[in-house]
Design goal:
Elements (H helix, E strand, L loop, with lengths): L15 E3 L2 E3 L6 E3 H8 L17 E4 L3 E2 L6 E2 L4 E2 L3 E2 L6 E5 L3 E5 L4 E4 L1
Antiparallel strand pairs: 1-2, 2-3, 4-7, 4-11, 5-6, 8-9, 9-10
InterPro entries: YjdM, YjdM_C, YjdM_N
Family: Belongs to the YjdM family.
Protein name: Alkylphosphonate utilization protein
Length: about 110
């Protein structure tokens, strides 16, 4: 059985697993198991500027992106809050206003402070 890691934000040892996410009951931080495994393997997800991305970050799109299968375009500057990192070629899972759930490549986004 895998041990549940401590919360990366507050260090609480009372974290638990829920539907593929780790949850901290003390600070309400949630993070995915996949991103934890990626970090343990020594792989890091970085944005277009080389900044390390983590679950819960806010990102901004750095160029217009065509949405495959539609005539819609994600405009430069579109922001996504509370991202999740996944192990795929599109390594960011997020929700974009006006588009809904979307998977993006980290090379087309930048981290917003």
């Amino acid at each position: 059985m895998n041990a549940v890691p401590n919360c990366p934000k507050c260090g609480s040892e009372y974290t638990y697993e829920d539907s593929g996410l780790f949850v901290c009951p003390e600070c309400a931080h949630e993070w995915s198991q996949v991103s934890e495994e990626v970090i343990e393997d020594g792989k890091m997800v970085k944005d277009a500027n080389g900044n390390k991305l983590q679950d819960g970050d806010t990102i901004s799109v750095i160029k217009d992106l065509k949405v495959k299968g539609t005539s819609m375009v994600i405009k430069i500057g579109t922001k996504a809050k509370n991202i999740r990192l996944i192990d795929s070629d599109h390594d960011i899972d997020c929700k974009l206003d006006g588009f809904g759930p979307m998977k993006l490549k980290s090379e087309f986004v930048k981290k917003v402070n």
